Amino acid sequence: MNMLRHSIKQAWQVLKQNRLYCFIYMLATAFSISMIMVLAIVFYLKVANVYPETGRDRMLVFRFGEIVQPDGSRRISRLSLETIQKCIYSLQTPEAVTAIYEGWGEVQIQPDNSAELISPTSKYVDTGFWKVFSFHFTDGAPFTDADMQSGIQTAVISEPLARQLFGTTKAAGLYITINFKPYRVCGVVEEPSYITERTYAQIWLPYSAHPNLVTSWGNTENTLGNFGAYMLAPSVKEVEKVKKRNGRNDPPL
User: Fold this and answer.
1) Residue 230, CB-side half-sphere exposure with 13 Å CA sphere
2) Sign of CA dihedral 109, 135, 56, 80
3) How far is CA 142 from CA 128, 134, 173, 232, in A?
4) What are the residues whose beta carbons fall under 8 Å from the beta carbon of 85, sequence distance 6 or more?
5) Do the beta carbons of residue 220 and residue 75 sit within 8 Å?
6) What is the pLDDT of residues 195-221, one digit of tens each?
7) Residue 247 scores a pLDDT above 50
8) C-alpha angle with apex 70: 68 to 74, nearest 5 degrees?
9) d(Cα 42, Cα 195) in Å, to the nearest integer?
10) Which H or E run contains 176?
11) Which residues contact 171 (CB under 8 A, 6 or more apart)?
12) Quick check: helix, strand or coil at residue 140?
């Protein structure tokens, strides 16, 4: 105890004699610790199972494909929707599969009784998106397979966007004008974090309502496009099984 008191007194004397140096030293130490904590938190949010990406530890991602031309040239890009439909949608081993449009697409919303346009962050997805990722619906429900097949113009929006547009989060069944076309709001969800880049948006739309988005790139035999595929294995232990595609009914890729 006496040694501890002596060390504290000695440190206090050094602090009084070299105030500027000690201040800079303590400030640098505090800044370093803060940066390490921030990086640790960001890393945790990037890899841990957090809302709505609660199945990261059993998720497999297919975002890029490669085409080798007869002349030996190679082209690497995201996948076409046709490739995902033929090679990934049909797999039986995964618990759920989704295709997400990862190209550029701007959405503009015109609120009622206002000339101002809102440009929320958007994603074009399918019905499997709501099975692969665990969104919490506070009102309504996701769009259905029937909506996708018929190309009905419907949308899921976040709670903050619902408040901005309607003044309430109970917006299911109401209509909004997106790119000068009427869309029915089918559901409202808790807004995800910016950190969850695979899922973050303020509005989610069925890509079937936008046929121009699903076109494949030329000279790639309809293999490449602007889509990424995400698969959810039934459990962590079965991730390798899904990778190897050894389900009894799974066709080869």
Assistant:
1) 22
2) negative
3) 10, 12, 12, 18
4) 99
5) yes
6) 898 999 999 999 998 878 877 666 667
7) no
8) 25
9) 8
10) strand 175-178
11) 139, 140, 157, 162, 165, 185, 188
12) strand
pLDDT band at 1 (very low <50, low <70, confident <90, very high): low
Q: Helix, strand, or coil here: 10?
A: helix
Tell me if 83 sits within 8 A of 221, measured CB to CB.
no
Q: And the tokens for 78?
A: 């995201």
Tell me 50's DSSP state: B
Instruction: Evaluate the omega torsion of the peptide bond into residue 52 and state whether it is cis, within 30 degrees of 0.
Output: yes
Q: How far apart are CA 164 and CA 116, in angstroms?
A: 12
Given 3-state DSSP classes, what are the helix, strand and coil percentages for the chain, each rounded to the nearest 5? 35, 25, 40
**pLDDT mean across residues, the chain:** 86
Q: The pTM is what?
A: 0.83
Length of the chain in residues, anyone?
Answer: 253
Sign of the torsion angle spanned by Cα atoms 235, 237, 238, 239: positive
One-letter amino acid at 240 equals E
Pairing of strands 175-178, 154-158: unpaired
Question: Which value, in Å, is the radius of gyration of the alpha carbons in the chain?
Answer: 25
Q: CB burial class (10 A; 0-12, 13-18, 19+) of residue 115?
A: exposed
The whole-angstrom separation of Cα 118 and Cα 101 is 21
pLDDT for res 210: 84
